[in-house]
Amino acid sequence: MAKVALVEAVSMAMAHALREDEAVVVMGEDVGINGGVFRATAGLQQEFGDQRVIDTPLAEVMIAGMAVGMAAQGMKPVIEAQFMGFVYAMVDHIISHAGRMRHRTRGRLSCPMVLRMPFGGGIHAPEHHSESTEAMFAHMPGIRVVIPSSPSRAYGLLLAAIRDPDPVVFLEPKRIYRWGKEEVPDDGEELPLDVCFVLRDGSDVTLVTWGAMVKETLEAADKLASEGISAEVIDVATISPLDMDTIIESVEKTGRCVIVSEAPRNCGVAAEIAANLADAGLYNLHAPVKRVTGYDTVMPLYRMEMKYMPSVKRILGAVNEILEVS
Amino acid sequence: MAKVALVEAVSMAMAHALREDEAVVVMGEDVGINGGVFRATAGLQQEFGDQRVIDTPLAEVMIAGMAVGMAAQGMKPVIEAQFMGFVYAMVDHIISHAGRMRHRTRGRLSCPMVLRMPFGGGIHAPEHHSESTEAMFAHMPGIRVVIPSSPSRAYGLLLAAIRDPDPVVFLEPKRIYRWGKEEVPDDGEELPLDVCFVLRDGSDVTLVTWGAMVKETLEAADKLASEGISAEVIDVATISPLDMDTIIESVEKTGRCVIVSEAPRNCGVAAEIAANLADAGLYNLHAPVKRVTGYDTVMPLYRMEMKYMPSVKRILGAVNEILEVS
Amino acid sequence: MSATVASYSVSYHQFLDREGRLIGDQAPALAKDYQQLISLYELMVETRTFDRKAVALQRTGQLGTYASCLGHEAAHIGIGSAMRAEDCFAPMYREYGAQFYRGVKMSEVLLYWGGDERGNNFSGPTHDFAWCVPIATQYLHAAGAALAFKLRGEKRVAVTVVGDGGSSKGDVMEAMNAASAYDLPLVMVIVNNQWAISVPRSKQNKAKTLAQKGIAAGLPSIQVDGNDIIATRWAMEKAIENARKGEGATVIEMITYRLSDHTTADDASRYRDPADVEEAWKSEPISRLRAYLEAEGVWNESEQARLDKQAAEKVEAAVKEYLGTPTPTIESMFDYMYAQIPHDLQAQKEAALKDAE
Amino acid sequence: MSATVASYSVSYHQFLDREGRLIGDQAPALAKDYQQLISLYELMVETRTFDRKAVALQRTGQLGTYASCLGHEAAHIGIGSAMRAEDCFAPMYREYGAQFYRGVKMSEVLLYWGGDERGNNFSGPTHDFAWCVPIATQYLHAAGAALAFKLRGEKRVAVTVVGDGGSSKGDVMEAMNAASAYDLPLVMVIVNNQWAISVPRSKQNKAKTLAQKGIAAGLPSIQVDGNDIIATRWAMEKAIENARKGEGATVIEMITYRLSDHTTADDASRYRDPADVEEAWKSEPISRLRAYLEAEGVWNESEQARLDKQAAEKVEAAVKEYLGTPTPTIESMFDYMYAQIPHDLQAQKEAALKDAE
Ligand SMILES: Cc1ncc(C[n+]2csc(CCOP(=O)(O)OP(=O)(O)O)c2C)c(N)n1
Ligand SMILES: Cc1ncc(C[n+]2csc(CCOP(=O)(O)OP(=O)(O)O)c2C)c(N)n1
Ligand SMILES: [Mg+2]
Ligand SMILES: [Mg+2]
């Protein structure tokens, strides 16, 4: 079996869903013949036709609002925001309608849609092409937020997201779109939308992360291992609902936790995790919970973007700081 | 001096700003002759004319986008979202432009605007009229987020917000728009945009809150006092930047902290505060940090809304839970 | 070189003048279909009876904020009555007349404004959208519904309504644009009642009509007297038929007047001249239709008395049903957020139940 | 009764045909103002020289993603040259020609696409807006600028540009609506280059023109040949003059063609026929203006050779300046977020400086 990259696994999952359920349609700017600006929808219009894989006018409010309407009428739209920087115009329909349709109507109508988009920095892209504002969606009731960090997780989680009867925001870490290829059987097996993945067992410190920062975090864990420090690495994957049980269980063992996220720090998902540790996890903590995050600044243009992104060095710095504490 | 309510103090601050600086204009739906749906702009158009207090077409994207343009060209627009539930359409311009104008142009252009709006539940309003999504704005780089909880703080903070050379989101707790009247001299004295207010000194537990929940939190503190428990009450007031020093100092003294917020729990501002306690404040904590918040559900329609909002009972429950811990 | 490359116009249609006389000789068959006209008239009167009662309930603390439909009866019932059950309605928040025609119960309207989500789980067509408070967003939901129908090859039409104020929102223009791009089976109504809370129509823009927004997307765009049910119904029928035949979308501006305050939370005397409102009463839809029916000899005092009584009874029954509806449960705050409640929310639900004990 | 209540049309204007011959006898004075025409021509050629170099820099790893302006020179320079310095320009991202006219330096364009915010702190008018990536948002910034000018009683005009794709966004319609509501001194240009990345103009909507979006708000709305600088400049001058006189806003659609890939990150061969591009080259703006100038006897081979050399040197100097600009500092990530850095961000800045040691 050929190995595929994360972006190809995304494609595979959409193709699988389009094949198995005729209610599924893929919509967005340039998703058709162009196959998406990252090729995530490459070949789909050719295979499924332009009534299933639909180019839209350049209008994000329209894409989101129509998806809500379609979903309420029994379709399963999988819409794309071309970059996360352009999703903000969609937020109104997502928060005011997608997340409320079922609740508002006591289940009479629902909103089974997926809003997928590439997110995160580090690819030398122009302004507004490097956003990581997953916390904004995690704060919205009624919306699931999912972030894969490997090809197989991308496939299984996206399939689950599309099949899910409620709205899911699916964030694709574009910096690792083509990193860490894996064999991914197109077997239609989905992954659960509410559990973390423990990527590496360890006993001295728990490193919690998601998306593209999994790469630096695993590198940091390797580095620590070479120094005799055993780090457990957890890929949160489902940002909302958040599987705190797995994280707290790990911290029970290690007593220490560093959360790594490229998003701005203030009110990010890392804060939610740390807040839970300060409550249910408090008695297991041997040292302060550290967050290694992006700064509360605009992501700089690309000459400086790697200075913004959490580095292996910064992760190691945080780990060392709390290891010194006994 | 006559006592004024919070909403009148908001009005006074706008009038003062309109008087002292001709760059200031007030804009929004129904802010003119109608004086705003909560009367926050009552009398302003009469005093300053329709070139300073400007009714807009019903178009939130327009209001936000034009405010950005006006601010960049030297005006100081104070715009209103009629309710926080209608601010989501504005988010794109706030995050993509208001918060970035100065940074993007290395200071050549800036965006001295204020976006004010009534927020929070508890007034038996219709759907979408009870939002508390301050965390969404706190997560945005380049934006200050301010929430007054008394008439005098409303006056001083709003004046400071309007004079501030950068964008400020100013959230008005409408449930207490007419509660707790105070004498507020119209002296043009502003309050700092980066410090918490300690509303009540205490030694056993720190209660941290903001907005309308200040009311229940103070009530809870009274109740605790009658049981011999001394609670310190902090009104955060400036959600971003967050004055953690004051909070940590308090917890140094009390060893215990309960954070009260009516917003949904997941990734709320309460999480940010707890996360900081789990880091810099960890060694002072004698007990888990509790969050008493709204649920991760849609704010229900009004028959059930008080079941959603944190109650004095829930606050006391959380305090008692951590007081049992020694 | 200069050449005209595109030309458009907006036409205005009215059949009944404000005294209830037929104008011109182009009136559609409905003008002589007395049975149908009377049934529309009855619903208009019932709707107004309901509306007055709802306002009274609010004034006496038995209902939350309520958006009155006073004066909009011809517009709303023209819309609702031209639709088939399988068509899909995406209303704003005051089109009760349209919804009653489609089977929504009066008690359900009261439940909604009475702060109970169950009002949205109404007895109208199950595919109809709920009341929509974020202005103009419903336009795109209707466009999405229309695209769904088109993709599935169903001969169904989506119908949506926005106000004069709401027509300034980008959502409306994006929906019209989508209707054009995808040839959607969609009818987009702008109910121009001259006011958006305190902001008069003239402040939304200086264009002669709101209908001409449709021209931006190259859609047929017309204006009708929104207080003339013969005109509103005729325009809707034509537009819905076109849409059903696959001939695309239409924009219809219905000119009417908001005779009430914006909602019960509003006090219109702050911003508008009572003389204007008095003048507007002269064009209101119910008395003109009654005058016409009476002149045609198909309606009279005693019919009216019967109808008034019937309407009052219907409304009373609805109020009783509404007031008798038990409070929602704590569980209901959590159980409809997702098809399957996630573990974190389940924990919150359990805590809430414990707190409520 | 049916009556026409509003009628509108869109006119199309062109003075130079694609062979460079004057059509009709209505050409504006500019057609015979050779000195000015030559200076516009020179800027068009310099802009194209710059553009080709920028693409080459990207291809060789010396520049980030870059949005080419190939084929847009008459549109952009028509826009920029009709404005006064005190007017305010709110561009999208590829109107370098307009910006060069206004004093922005080539090296600054390169700095921006080279990943350096200092490119936005450019030498053009300090009140001009920066490049705007979130499509169409600039329309509202321009509307806000126009309102600021109007409120302050300044005789200044705001000018903004959006693409055919971007014209589908609600921001554009809300800006047009605002222009109508407030009678703004605003000129709104739609540069229709037939493509929005891979999506052709025909998929944005089925209306005959994009100019007619202005009709929605009752604004004068025209179409011009965007490859004819005499037409683009004429239309802009007229619209700007009207705006300055207080006569409100205009919508101008300029019809051109994107001869390049969308950006250097795009591969247009995936979605468009090379034959169409070849055909479009026949209408491109520079060769037609050159043919006209040569036919009028005011331009020749040797002038061209001089210009080519001058352009190449200018571009080379800009590249040198760009490549020589030192990396921004860590401090610069923090210092422009606010006028006064807040305490929390100050702490982050100090940590970042320490990490960078
Ligand atoms: C997006 C949004 N902004 C503001 C409001 C508050 N609001 C409710 S109704 C209304 C005026 C609506 O006027 P119009 O569209 O003319 O409809 P009408 O109420 O007159 O029927 C406003 C501003 C809202 N509900 N949604
Ligand atoms: C709001 C938004 N959505 C999507 C994009 C991604 N994007 C960049 S350019 C572009 C196409 C723009 O086409 P058009 O408006 O015709 O302008 P052109 O590039 O052809 O000049 C898209 C979709 C964006 N920058 N902003
Ligand atoms: Mg109205
Ligand atoms: Mg284009």
Characterization of the model:
- The complex is a heterotetramer, with two copies of chain A (326 residues) and two copies of chain C (357 residues).
- By secondary structure, chain A is of the alpha/beta class.
- Chain A has two domains: 3-183, Thiamin diphosphate (ThDP)-binding fold, Pyr/PP domains (Rossmann fold); 197-325, Rossmann fold, CATH 3.40.50.920.
- Helices cover 35% and strands 19% of the residues of chain A.
- Chain A contains twelve helices and 14 strands.
- Chain A has helices spanning 6-20, 44-48, 60-72, 91-98, 101-104, 134-138, 151-163, 213-226, 244-254, 269-279, 305-308, 312-323; strands spanning 3-4, 24-28, 53-55, 76-80, 114-119, 144-146, 168-173, 182-183, 197-200, 205-209, 231-235, 238-240, 257-264, 290-294.
- In chain A, the strands form three sheets. Chain A has a seven-stranded mixed β-sheet, sandwiched between helices. Chain A has a five-stranded mixed β-sheet with strand order 9-11-10-13-14, sandwiched between helices. A two-stranded antiparallel ribbon of chain A has the order 1-8.
- In chain A, strand 2 (24-28), helix 2 (44-48) and strand 3 (53-55) form a beta-alpha-beta unit.
- In chain A, helix 1 packs parallel to helix 7 (151-163).
- Chain C folds into two domains: 12-326, 3-Layer(aba) Sandwich (Rossmann fold); 330-357, no CATH class.
- Chain C is 44% helix and 12% strand.
- Chain C contains 13 helices and eight strands.
- Chain C has helices at 34-59, 73-81, 96-101, 106-113, 137-151, 170-182, 213-216, 229-244, 274-281, 285-295, 301-323, 331-334, 343-356; strands spanning 2-13, 88-90, 158-163, 186-192, 195-196, 199-200, 221-225, 250-255.
- In chain C, the strands form two sheets. Chain C has a six-stranded parallel β-sheet with strand order 1-7-8-4-3-2, sandwiched between helices.
- In chain C, helix 1 (34-59) packs across helix 2, helix 1 packs across helix 11 and helix 2 (73-81) runs parallel beside helix 8.
- Chain C is globular.
- The model of chain C has no long low-confidence stretch (mean pLDDT 98).
- The interface between B and D is large, with 47 and 43 residues.
- Strand 1 of chain C pairs antiparallel with strand 1 (2-13) of chain D, so a sheet runs across the interface.
- One magnesium ion is lined by residues 163-165, 193, 195-196, 258 of chain D.
